[in-house]
Amino acid sequence: MVVGTTPYQDRKEAYPLDKKTLRFIALRSFFMQAGRNSETDSSTGWTWAIAPGLKKIHTNEQDYATALGQNLEYNDPGTLFPTFVMGVSLALEAQKADPAIIRAVRTSAALAAMSLENALFNILLLPGLFSLLVSALSGTVVMAAVYAVIVFLLCVILRFSLVSYGYAKGSAAVEKLMAKEDALKHASRIAGIFMIGAIVVCTSIMPSGLSSSFTAHAYLDGAFPGLIGVVAVLLVYHLLVKKNWSLFRCALLLMVIGFIIGALL
Q: What pTM does this model have?
């Protein structure tokens, strides 16, 4: 038997999984990274998390073993959207689709989920949230606690909601996700540029504006660094949208401009 390509013996569609089982799978997904290794990444924890659903779907022991085996193959759906991929996989398992098809859809969904996580979460949301909390709470222990709570609550909400959505929509959800993947990543890059510009302006102007000894000179000292940030944001926006530059090329250009300005000053 070749794991992942052997058709299931029982081809009758399984009863839909109940919400309690889906919530239990979402809860177990928080331990998914515990079995991470360099050969199959997080597939061990993934399989452990999804096993209750597979057990209810596959009453045939041989089919259950086949399903467990193919889920133990290399898999890295990330840490933000893994339950979405789980829901999609379980929907196909319940339909008793060919294991090779399930593997292909699972791999595609995992790659899309990881890509969007990097674009929306790691590049846009987390740095922006961290910067705002540093400005508001001045790097205190409270800031670290608030940051951790916000990120944790976001993960909890997404994991418990996306497992149901992925299971309800099945492979159609993957098609919609992949169709909008490039647009979402492009939008996140642009939004990230504007967020950085806003943070630069706020941190440059606000201290002078709130000072009790306000002077025009102090205001200009704070405003000019902010204007540089605004100009940089507008330049990068133009290059991304109008010239179709990559974010890497934009970053290199800003580094070169920064070195030139630094050398002249």
A: 0.64
